[in-house]
């Protein structure tokens, strides 16, 4: 599938949706939907690439943006934004950092637990590591996640995972 370029205004975070968003024409959204998979890579104003999904709603398909991305793009509600959309064919629907890959994908049992999670939970765990800047802290966070998956036998309990992350941070003097 080729890239498709559109120009749409930034929708308001006070709408019926959860936050800032771009409405996507139905005829464009359909081209990127493959069963339940709606993952795309959107490039905004030829500046910032973002792995995301075209979300469904009764008002029509849309792409969500977080506040940080809106600030990086220096845009406000109603501003027209050029968006290049391409299908995201990556394994997990977002990039995975080296540290997470080394720890999670490097251990067969941990990886099996990880693969049994829903794609959304997989991306959530990847995001928990990707958002960190320090490679050392990324590695510690990845090890905490691996430890949690092993202890919980693949069942993801976010409250317990947060406690495990805190324990790993304390052991490594990160608090």
How would you characterize the overall build of this protein?
By secondary structure, the protein is of the alpha+beta class. The protein folds into two domains: 4-87, Elongation Factor Tu (Ef-tu), domain 3 (Beta Barrel), CATH 2.40.30.100; 98-171. It has seven helices and six strands, in the order ββαβββαβααααα. The chain has helices spanning 26-32, 67-73, 98-105, 108-116, 119-130, 135-151, 158-171; strands at residues 4-11, 21-23, 39-44, 48-53, 62-64, 80-87. It has a six-stranded antiparallel beta sheet with strand order 4-3-6-1-2-5, with helices on one face. α3 packs parallel to α6 and α5 packs antiparallel against α6 (135-151). 26% of the residues are buried. The mean pLDDT is 90.
What descriptors fit this protein?
175 residues, alpha+beta, Elongation Factor Tu (Ef-tu), domain 3, 6-stranded antiparallel beta sheet
Summarize the structure.
The protein has helices at residues 26-32, 67-73, 98-105, 108-116, 119-130, 135-151, 158-171, and strands at residues 4-11, 21-23, 39-44, 48-53, 62-64, 80-87.
Q: What is the number of E strands? A: 6
Helix and strand composition category: alpha+beta
Low-confidence stretches: none
**Nearest-integer average pLDDT:** 90
Total domain units: 2
**Rg for CA atoms:** 18 Å
Shape: elongated
Task: Figure out the total of helices.
Answer: 7
Order of helices and strands: EEHEEEHEHHHHH
For the biggest sheet, the summary is: 6 strands, antiparallel
- Termini, distance in Å? 46 Å
Helix content: 40-55%
The CATH homologous superfamily of the largest domain: AF2212/PG0164-like
- The CATH topology of the largest domain is given as Elongation Factor Tu (Ef-tu), domain 3
What's the arrangement of strands in the largest beta sheet? 4-3-6-1-2-5
> Regarding CATH, which class of the largest domain?
Mainly Beta
Named at the architecture level, the CATH assignment of the largest domain is Beta Barrel
> What percent of residues are in strands?
15-25%
